[in-house]
Design brief:
By secondary structure, this protein is an alpha+beta fold. It has one domain. Helices cover about 15% and strands about 30% of the residues. It has 4 helices and 12 strands. The strands form 3 sheets. A 5-stranded mixed sheet has the order 7-10-11-1-12, with no helix packed on it. The chain has a 5-stranded mixed sheet with strand order 2-3-4-6-5. Strands 8-9 form a two-stranded antiparallel ribbon. The longest helix is centred in the middle third of the chain and has 9 residues. It is globular. The two termini are about 20 Å apart. The protein binds zinc ion. Zinc ion (ZN) binds next to loops.
């Protein structure tokens, strides 16, 4: 099954990082260890600043989609995503990727991971994670018309984000729906 990494545009916002009272930091390394919880708690406060993007990324990781994205997803019966309404910005949703696949470390010799914390287990930096290939056993389970996320999250102190993946024929379906600002990358293997 051919699959792609899916990206959008930087929306120039933080989703949860500014809400100090929601954040729990590891006492040893200082990294946030409750990002899922902080994201959920921040949904009601978040406001979309840049409203013309179909898919956009916050500085701290969460992805936001517009009604246009959801309409294409529903129309074509696609799988693997959940959409959480953003109350202060009607027509926009926090994107949730429901199915997690294991990142294949063996197929990316460039991946850079620095300083794993003994206390919380997080790496202080994870970068150069492209191309996001997943282990062969998980590739065999991928279905057509579905979205997935990697278990590996890349980023540093502020941003942490898994990679969003999509299988064929999603790039074609989005193109036919006239969506031009959701990018599907099919990275070459590096070796
Ligand atoms: Zn730590």
């Amino acid at each position: 099954m051919k699959y792609y990494s899916v990206t959008g545009t930087d929306n120039n916002s933080e989703f949860y990082y500014m809400n100090d009272e929601f954040l729990k930091h590891c006492p040893k390394c200082g990294l946030i260890y409750n990002r899922e919880e902080a994201t959920a708690l921040s949904v009601s406060r978040f406001r979309v600043k840049k409203k013309h993007y179909t898919l956009s990324h916050c500085w701290d990781g969460p992805m936001i989609v517009s009604e246009r994205f959801v309409a294409a997803y529903v129309k074509h019966g696609l799988k693997g995503l959940g959409f959480v309404k953003i109350p202060q910005s009607p027509g926009f949703y926090l994107l949730r990727a429901l199915n997690v696949l294991r990142y294949d470390y063996a197929r990316n010799p460039r991946l850079f991971m620095k300083d794993q914390c003994e206390e919380c287990g997080q790496w202080y930096e994870v970068s150069l994670a492209n191309p996001p290939r997943v282990v062969p056993e998980d590739e065999a389970r991928m279905e057509a018309g579905a979205f997935y996320r990697t278990d590996l999250e890349s980023g540093e102190k502020v941003e942490r984000t898994p990679m969003l993946l999509a299988t064929d024929p999603i790039p074609r379906l989005f193109r036919e729906s006239g969506i031009k600002d959701v990018y599907f990358d099919y990275p070459e293997e590096i070796g």
